[in-house]
Amino acid sequence: MSNTILVADDEDSIVQLTKLYLSKEGYRVITARDGQEALESARRLKPDLIVLDLMMPRVDGWEVCRRLRKDSNVPVIMLTARDDDVDKIVGLELGADDYVTKPFNPRELVARVKAVLRRAQNPADPDATIDIADLHVDPARREVRVAGRPVQLRGQEFELLLVLAKQEGRVMTREALLREAWGYDYLGESRTVDVHVAWLRERLQGAGIEIQAVRGFGYKLVGTPRPVHDGTAGGEVTTAGRREPAR
C-alpha cells in the first residue's frame, strides 16, 4: 500500500505541482488549502507525512505543527516562502522534521519526502550499514566507501559523519553534534564542528552527498539527487512550470 502525503498550502500552483511530482512517485496525495482544513484532514485521514506551508489562512503552519505534536508523531516537512533562519529554527523546534524554502525544485522536495519517510519508518539499527547516494558507512567495521572506493577517516571525523548520516536530512545544532559525536557536553568553542565538517567535505567528494550549513543553526547531510531528464530538450521544469534553457 502506498504512503499517503497531505499537502497543505493555499497556493494552487504549489499544490498542483507538488501533487503531480509526488503522485508520479506512487504516493497517494491529499490536499488542504488552509491550516484548519490541514488539521482536520490530518486527524481524520492519518497521512504518513505532511508537507505544510507556514503562511496559511485561518491557522498558520507553526500553530498546525504545534497542535499536531500534542498527540501525533507524523513527519512534517515545512514550506516557507521567506529565507529566514528564524522561521526554520522555530519550525524545527516545534517538531518539524525538515523544511524547504520556496521557490523549490519539486525533485528536491520528493527526495526530502523519501528521506524523511525512510527515517520515520525504519528506525536505525546502531550497527546497520548506511547507504546514501554513493556513500557507504559501516558502523560495525568503521569503514567508509565513496563510489566503492575506501576512504580513510580519522576517529572524530568518522563519528561526526555517522551522526550526520544517521540523521539524514535533519538539521542538527553544533551543540547537538558535539554532544553526539564527541560524547559529552562541550563547553568550549563549537568551531571544532566547522573544522571537521570542512575536512569531511574534502574527503567525501564524489559521494553524491552534501553537508549543508544552516546559517545560525547547524548542519545537515543530504543526498544530492542525480540529474533527471524530463524527456524534452533544452532545459528542466521549474516550480513555476516554466522551462529554463540548459546552461
Largest sheet: 5 strands, parallel
**How would you write the strand order of the largest sheet?**
2-1-3-4-5
CATH topology of the largest domain: Rossmann fold
Average per-residue pLDDT, rounded, comes to: 83
Indicate the proportion of strand residues. Answer: 15-25%
List keywords for this structure.
5-stranded parallel β-sheet, alpha/beta, 4-stranded antiparallel β-sheet, 23% strand, globular, 247 residues, Rossmann fold, 14 strands
Summed up, what is this model?
The protein has helices at residues 12-24, 35-45, 61-68, 85-93, 106-121, 155-166, 174-182, 191-203, and strands at 4-8, 28-32, 49-53, 76-80, 98-101, 130-132, 135-138, 143-146, 149-151, 172-173, 209-214, 218-223, 235-237, 243-245. It has 247 residues and is an alpha/beta fold.
Provide a descriptive summary of the structure in words:
This protein has helices at 12-24, 35-45, 61-68, 85-93, 106-121, 155-166, 174-182, 191-203, and strands spanning 4-8, 28-32, 49-53, 76-80, 98-101, 130-132, 135-138, 143-146, 149-151, 172-173, 209-214, 218-223, 235-237, 243-245. It has 247 residues and is an alpha/beta fold. It has two domains: 4-121, Rossmann fold; 130-223, Winged helix-like DNA-binding domain superfamily/Winged helix DNA-binding domain (Arc Repressor Mutant, subunit A, Orthogonal Bundle). The chain has a five-stranded parallel beta sheet with strand order 2-1-3-4-5, with helices on both faces. Helix 4 links the parallel strand 4 (76-80) and strand 5 (98-101). Helix 1 packs across helix 5, helix 2 runs parallel beside helix 3 and helix 6 packs across helix 8. The longest helix has 16 residues, at 106-121. The chain is globular. The model is unreliable at 232-247 (pLDDT under 50).
